[in-house]
Write a structure and sequence with these properties.
mainly alpha, two-stranded antiparallel ribbon, AA/rel_permease1, transmembrane, transmembrane transporter activity, Amino acid permease/ SLC12A domain-containing protein, membrane
């Protein structure tokens, strides 16, 4: 069995390519014998003096990861997208397909996380696996793409908060028409509140994510049972499982289905959240893979069950998609539960979940920015890589990300179409970062030099090959189809995926 010293000698070329970024890779490569990540000494000379405090247990890590994805809420929030993109069959057959494809991703990321637990995640693994001549370019590209992906996801979560707040107001007061600046101010207020939480209260309030995890699962059961028990009538089996609705203008139903599974794809938006908290986890080599697995499994089970319940109990899909409240899930619950009060209570719970998701996104994005700056990959790295000694969080990284999210919100004032186009890239960019290390593992033939046999999370060799290849193949396919316009012929107003949802208007 190779030793850590053998790894250092065997990877001398690969390490040299990344050392220019200032990273002491020896400090983060796993010890093969113990399969634990080395601590970085404060006098390493590579800017690693500011280290994170390892105080996040496995439950907190799972809860943060779940709070970011909140799979069943994410799927139902984008349900309007599939109404004309195949209808219920796209959603119900798309969910298992996405589950299988993301299973490949979870296996690929989980194995690497169990060997190289790092806040840098994908770009760090890319730097280790890439050939000498491409290491620096690939790792830097992966890191930047991942940062932009997380900022995009955070902005996308942030805009859901004003939608939730204004939906019941519009319903109870139809004369109210929210102005663009109303949405803008609520968006910025929510982002600012989560920023303050992440700076001043995070270390004392990790229990909040545990609460949201439990509340989300409990709400899932309530929503499922209530929809089925209160629905005045049910859709037929044929309309739910067979009838394919194509109102897009595309002639090929296959194209419509592949573009429509974007909605099921949001079941796992922000899946890698736990990865970037590895350096704050007490036992990252086992905790991170478990967090990924739990989010993957629980996310699918809750999403699939509640989707079936909602597809059967919804009374009018067209009204759900075109609801004047701007939040389709509210109209769906109203139709199924036959109660405005119950639907409003569901929105209140989702509002809490929305704040938790946004706080989790900011937390995760800041750790990625902090790690990338620690490797001197950003302007102002000396500030961005600083870990505040009092609050034990990367304050500068948090503020920098918040500033970018603020600017993106200003774009919404000018054009919601441009804003929607930006936040619509988050899921695709995230998938691209997953494909980087998966492709390089294939290139390296999954050798024990890179994936030690003693790693804590290990899948059979054949499954590993399939998972890595599946991750790359899935990313290529959906990147092509999820970038296609949802309506044909194409017009400026329908170029953005999210413009079609009709949930944000100029």
């Amino acid at each position: 069995m190779p030793t850590d010293n053998n790894l250092s000698q065997g990877n001398a070329g690969e390490r040299a390519a990344v050392k220019d970024l200032g990273k002491d890779l020896d400090s983060c490569v796993a010890d093969v014998e113990t399969n634990r990540c080395h601590e970085v000494s404060e006098d390493s000379g590579h800017g690693y003096g500011d280290r994170a405090t390892r105080d996040i247990g496995i439950l907190e890590l799972v809860s943060v990861g779940w709070s970011i994805c909140n799979s069943w809420v994410g799927v139902l929030s984008t349900i309007a997208f599939v109404v004309n993109q195949g209808g219920p069959p796209t959603l119900l057959y798309g969910l298992p397909l996405i589950f299988i494809m993301y299973g490949c991703i979870v296996c690929s990321l989980g194995e690497l996380a169990s060997v190289y637990p790092s806040a840098g995640g994908q770009y760090h693994w890319t730097s280790i696996l890439a050939p000498n001549s491409w290491g620096r370019v690939l790792s830097y590209s992966c890191g930047l793409i991942n940062i932009f992906a997380w900022i995009s996801i955070a902005a996308g979560v942030g805009i859901i908060i004003p939608q939730i707040l204004t939906a019941p107001i519009i319903h109870y007061n139809p004369a109210y028409a929210p102005k663009t600046w109303h949405i803008f101010l609520i968006y910025q207020a929510g982002s600012a509140a989560c920023l303050l939480h992440n700076i001043f209260a995070l270390r004392r309030s990790m229990w909040f994510f545990n609460l949201i995890f439990g509340l989300s699962v409990a709400t899932f059961f309530v929503a499922t049972v209530t929809c089925l028990a209160r629905a005045p009538s049910f859709q037929t089996h044929l309309s739910v499982w067979v009838t394919f609705v194509n109102r897009t203008g595309w002639e090929s139903d296959g194209v419509v289905f592949l573009t429509g599974i974007l909605s099921p794809g949001y079941m796992y938006a922000g899946l890698d959240g736990a990865i970037h908290l590895a350096e704050e986890s007490k036992n990252p080599t086992t905790a991170v893979p478990r967090a990924l697995l739990s989010t993957w499994i629980v996310g699918f089970l809750t999403s699939f069950v509640v989707a079936i319940a909602c597809m059967y109990s919804a009374q009018d899909f067209d009204k759900v998609a075109s609801t004047p409240t701007g939040f389709p899930i509210f109209e769906l619950f109203r139709q199924a539960m036959r109660s405005d009060a119950a639907s409003t209570v569901m929105l209140v719970i989702m509002l809490l979940a929305g704040f938790a998701a946004l706080a989790g996104c900011q937390q995760t994005a800041s750790r990625l920015t902090w790690a990338f700056a620690r490797d001197r990959g950003l302007f102002g790295s000396s500030k961005l890589s600083h870990m505040d000694e009092k609050w034990l969080v990367p304050v500068w990284a948090l503020c920098a990300n918040a500033a970018v999210i603020f600017i993106i919100g200003c774009v919404y004032l000018g054009s919601s179409t441009a804003f929607n186009a930006f936040i619509g890239t988050g899921l695709i960019l995230q998938l691209i970062t997953f494909a980087f290390p998966a492709a390089l593992l294939l290139l390296r033939r999954r050798l024990a030099q890179y994936l030690p046999e003693s790693r804590k999370f290990k899948v059979p060799a054949v499954i590993g090959w399939i998972a890595n290849a599946g991750t790359v193949g899935f990313t290529i396919i959906v990147t092509i189809f999820w970038c296609l316009p949802t309506v044909f012929p194409v017009a400026p107003s329908n170029m953005s995926k999210f413009a079609y949802l009709n949930i944000l208007k100029d």
